[in-house]
Amino acid sequence: MLISQEWFTTMIIIAVFIPIISVIALFMIMGYEKEFRLMKVKQQNVELEKDFQQSKYMQLNAQIQPHFLFNTINLILGYARLDEKRQLVNTIENFSQYLRFSYQVQDQLIPLSMEFEQTKKYLAIQQARFESYLTIEYEVDSEVYDALVPPYTLQTLTENAFKHGLEKKAGEKYLKILLKNDDTRLVIQVIDNGVGINLKQMEATPSGHGLDNIQRRLMLLFGKENVNLLVCPSDTGTTASVSFPLQTNKSGEEHENTPS
Question: Nearest 5 degrees, angle CA 237-CA 130-CA 103?
Fold first, then answer.
């Protein structure tokens, strides 16, 4: 059977152009997939920024009208009336740095060391309020200081311990903060001996929304399956903990928005 020249030419054209078309189609598909991934990353960044701004709003709003603000002002006034200059200066300095952090921090992730220092400013004020009735204990693995966390993670857990537990308890108060590396995961845990957090009541307050905000941001950053947030109340207090993959700033560059 003889093959005509036209048929032979057609077969050659098909044999040459089909692979070329296939390669072009493959590159187009790869390009669309890359564009889709970029769009997904951009969407996640938008959601993270939205949640971060919401967290900042809740934090600033909570500072404008909380009992903590009034208690601190009353503490400062008390020191002024009693002419206790050293305590007065220390409290004003801690309170000033506490507020400055909330207005200056801009990063979605900050070193845990920065978050820890901010929380200790808050605790220094609470220690001044409750004096010997409050015992604070820290248990920190040295390697976690460089771990990156969303702002207000530790601070929110600590403030909740006071607002929903310790401040409602008479007598001796105890708070423990654990920051540890658990097999490449960062574990942040706050333990108190307060009255026990009422989860339903807390969910209806800004602090309850703050926990939801932290969990949402962590899930966007590390994946839903990699984040655990637990609040376990009991008759003898509450244990609140969050864990997620331990990530550090490998570039070694300082954050520009670190409060000084």
Answer: 90
Tell whether 27 and 131 lie within a shared domain. Answer: no
C-alpha–C-alpha distance, residues 135 and 28, integer Å: 63
* Residue 184 token pair: 């490449």
Residues 190-236 have pLDDT tens digits of: 999 998 877 666 555 555 556 787 888 888 888 889 999 988 888 88
* Amino acid letter, 102: S
pLDDT digits (tens, 9 = 90+) for 110-133: 999 999 999 999 999 999 999 999
Q: Domain check: are 87 and 199 in the same one? A: yes
Q: Which two tokens stand for residue 168?
A: 């409602």
Sign for the CA dihedral angle at 98, 99, 101, 102 comes to positive
129 and 230 part of one domain: yes
- pTM to 2 decimal places: 0.71
Identify whether the C-beta of residue 190 lies closer than 8 Å to the C-beta of residue 163: no
Amino acid sitting at position 259 = P
